[in-house]
Amino acid sequence: MLTAFAVRIAMVLADMSPVSIYVVTPGRLDALAAGAFVALIGESSRSIPALLRAQQIVIVTGFICLGLALWRGGASNTDPLVLTVGLSLIAIHFAAFIALVRTLPSDHWLVTLLSSTLLRVFGKYSFAMYLAHMPLSALVRDIVYHPDQFLTFGGSKLPGQILFYIGTISLTFVVAFVSWHFWEKHFLKLKSSFVLPLDISSPEIPTQRT
Fold it and tell me: How far apart are CA 158 and CA 160, in angstroms?
């Protein structure tokens, strides 16, 4: 995580484009690392105390993020402070939030909400949607439905904006669906080749006495 943070600081000091800082992969590895860490500690029963501490992390980072947004007048991805400190805080905050949800009982309203069919479907195809949504949005905007063509009501372009979002989200979902079935799921089958060692201290796993 520190490496990604350092990369973004170096890019800010080099006066690079905010867009480049925001999207370049080496500068965003802290979010991937935080998510991977939560996934790994969740596999071990010895990590339950660490998961329980997630509530404190969620609260602290949440207040810091809120304070940062109030101080900077928002959370613009062109703000150097948001691009450096802010992105790392957001990564830690949401990783801790996921860890916190894992400690909740299965009938908790938040678990029920996050386990809903709609969110699971979007979660399944979310990676390709993340990759495709910007170029597809630009394609629709420049070729199919330009803001100058937006449907208006009472002088407001909100109806046209809503139609634009519905169209681009639908198109992005279709592209992600195709990507999943023709590309991604075949790579995920390789997971069977990487088996995590069993946690022999877990009470759910019987140990064999000699």
Answer: 5
Distance CA 134, CA 120 (A): 22
Domain boundaries, the chain: 1-107, 116-196
- According to the model, what pLDDT value does residue 163 have? 93
pLDDT tens digits, residue range 175-210? 999 999 998 888 888 877 776 655 544 444 344 444
Residue 143 identity: I
112-122 tens-digit pLDDT: 999 999 999 99
Phi, psi of 146 (to 5 degrees): -75, 150
Query: Exposed, middle or buried: residue 5 (CB in 10 Å: 0-12, 13-18, 19+)?
Result: middle
What was the pLDDT predicted at 51?
61
90, 65 Cβ separation under 8 angstroms: yes
Residue 164: helix, strand or coil by DSSP?
A: helix
Measured between its terminal Cα atoms, the distance across the chain in Å is 43
The dihedral formed by the CA atoms of 95, 99, 100 and 104, expressed in degrees to the nearest 10: 150
Neighbours of 92 (CB within 10 A): 21
Global pTM value: 0.70
- Between the alpha carbon of residue 115 and those of residues 122, 124, 203, the distances in Å are 11, 12, 26
Angle at 191 between CA 186 and CA 193, to 5 degrees: 115
What is the C-alpha radius of gyration for the chain, rounded to an integer number of angstroms?
A: 21
159, two tokens? 């109806």
